[in-house]
Amino acid sequence: MIAIDLLEKYGALKKFFAKNETVFEEGNIPTHYYQIVYGEIKMSNYNDDAREFIQGIFYKEQSFGEPPLFLNQKYPANAIAVEDSEVLLLPKDSFMKLLEENSAISIKIIENLAQRLYYKSVMAAEMSTQEPEHRVLKLIDHGIAYFNFKKDENGYLISFTRQQIGDLTGLRVETVIRTIKALEKKGVLKIINRKVYR
């Protein structure tokens, strides 16, 4: 989202996180701005039944964890590398200076946060009122619009695992599997070599 050379000009450093390594923990006070160079990071927490709930999944060139950074509040979720990832870390003071000195970047950050807030509002409404098929399609269509899923002759390849779809929609994995099969029968989704396409 922010050019790497600009982040590095303000003092950002690259850090490698192995698969399943924690970037930051729920309850920590934010100290840095994070932007992914490559890889995949999820923000999640667990309910009282030890069930994981994914707050968001982030990919190359996306940032994560900004709301608590701006509010000086504790992180409400853990950030964990889903796969080997490299992340740019910029100290908070330097990040704020970058925003003050680059108004176009500030607007970009505001748009990004607004988009995430909009998505959370839409998904909250979906999870409270809609049937599984509707929830799954809403999430997939959001992924196509905002996560740059790859398109080939089969359609858009949905990069989420069945588990991630469940954790993002509040559905059990078994329900997700049944729902995807039902949507395939209706011709809304395709399953090719166990991969889901829209």
From TrEMBL:
Q: Which UniProt keywords apply?
A: DNA-binding, Transcription, Transcription regulation
Cellular component, GO annotation: cytosol
Q: Which InterPro entries match?
A: cNMP-bd_dom (IPR000595), cNMP-bd_dom_sf (IPR018490), Env_Response_Regulators (IPR050397), HTH_CRP (IPR012318), RmlC-like_jellyroll (IPR014710), WH_DNA-bd_sf (IPR036390)
Q: Which organism is it from?
A: Flavobacterium pectinovorum
Pfam families tied to this protein: cNMP_binding, HTH_Crp_2
Q: Which residues form the HTH crp-type domain?
A: 130-198
Question: What domain of life?
Answer: Bacteria
Give the protein's recorded name.
Crp/Fnr family transcriptional regulator
* Molecular function (Gene Ontology), one example: DNA binding
The residues covered by the Cyclic nucleotide-binding domain are 17-116
